[in-house]
Amino acid sequence: MTQPTDIRRVGGGMGEHLRTALHLAASGIPPLPLRAGKLPFGNCPTCVRNACGGRPNMKIPGPCACPLPCHGWAAATTDPHVVTSPAWARAWREAAAVAYHPGGAGLTVVDLDNADAIAWARETLPATRTVTTPRGEHWIYRGTMASSNAVRSGVDIKSLMQYARWLEPGEGATAPLPDAVRALVKEAPSARRAPQALSVPMRGHGGECRHRTPTYLERGIAMAEQRITDARSAIHATVYRTFLAVLSTHGQCGCLTDAHIARLFTAAQAKGETVRHCTDAWTNARTALGM
Fold first, then answer.
1. How many CB atoms lie within 10 A of CB 290?
2. Residue 268 to residues 64, 157, 272, 277, 289: CA-CA distances in angstroms?
3. Whole-number pLDDT of residue 291
4. Above 60 in pLDDT, residue 61?
5. What are the pLDDT digits (tens) for 123-151?
6. What is the secondary structure of the chain as a DSSP string?
7. pLDDT (average), residues 154-165
8. d(CA 64, CA 51)
9. How far apart are CA 230 and CA 141, in angstroms?
10. 187 near 193, Cβ under 8 Å?
11. How many CB atoms lie within 10 A of CB 115?
């Protein structure tokens, strides 16, 4: 077993962001570098459009062993040897900030963007660890859930398949994730904006499982990835319709896993979709199908 890098030996030339990332990794919080605008570094030429076949740290099958900080939130890692590797050196030199994957650390961040959102949280949610942000506060809970933006005015949820900017450790004890936060995703305004017309028939409804072999589900996910990858126009619409088709066929019986969803999100992001667009499209498709 390799030994983690001693963060005390990280020289000043490697940058404050790298030292912060190593502290996070040593604490079990997977970090990643952000470029200007709080954006992750884009996929390298080898991995563009998910041509590499997958990412082990996304639990996506495939041969990808890219050493670069590719694939957005999925690049986050607690391995200090990866964080300090030559492949990441350029990213740290260009980094404008450090982010982390809350879901990978077993956490959920309630991102409060303004004073009204903070006032609402203080009246509604149990107290927990709080971090001051440039526009508001991050309320951090112990536990994971699906991420979703704009669950109410000025409130985003960042947990699985999402990243949050690291600002400071914060104050207070980290409380367990309450049902009140989980309920926000079900009640999100984005869900109520779901399209009314369905472009695919409902199949597998009522819990019937048509996955007689694992190949049936695997083929469906692979076809959906390819449909998104091959799109040359109307990317937003293609992503939504593809999500809708996958959910209508595979979403009713419980066989669809986080790994399958991550593959679809990765394909969409390779076409330029943001995490916000992916999350909204998935939420709208689920709502349209009554899930």
1. 9
2. 18, 20, 7, 9, 20
3. 67
4. no
5. 999 999 999 999 999 999 999 888 888 88
6. -PPPP-GGG--GGG-HHHHHHHHHHHTT--EEEEETTTEEPPPPTTTGGGTT---GGGT--S-----SS-SGGGG----HHHHTSHHHHHHHHH-SEEEE-TGGGTEEEEEE-SHHHHHHHHHHSPP-EEEE-SSSEEEEEES--B-EEEEETTEEEEBBB--EE-----BS--EEPPHHHHHHHHT-HHHHT--SS-SS---SGGG----SSHHHHHHHHHHHHHHHHH--S-HHHHHHHHHHHHHHHHSSSS---HHHHHHHHHHHHHTT--HHHHHHHHHHHHHHTT-
7. 90
8. 9
9. 39
10. no
11. 12
Task: Label residue 213 by pLDDT band (50, 70, 90).
Answer: low
User: pTM, whole model, 2 decimals?
Assistant: 0.63
What's the pLDDT tens digit per position in 67-114? 889 878 888 889 999 999 999 999 999 999 999 999 889 999 999 999
Contacts of 66 (CB under 8 A, 6+ apart): 44, 46, 47, 52, 55
DSSP character string of 49-63 = GGTT---GGGT--S-
Sign of CA dihedral 147, 67, 56, 1: negative
Please report the pLDDT score of residue 191 as a whole number.
Answer: 42
4: exposed, middle or buried (Cβ count in 10 Å: 0-12, 13-18, 19+)? middle
Helices 258-270 + 275-288 axis angle, to 10: 130
Residue 108 φ then ψ, to 5°: -130, 130
Tens-digit pLDDT profile for residues 160-199 = 888 999 999 999 999 999 999 999 887 655 444 433 332 2
Residues in the chain: 291
| Tokens describing residue 186 | 């079900």
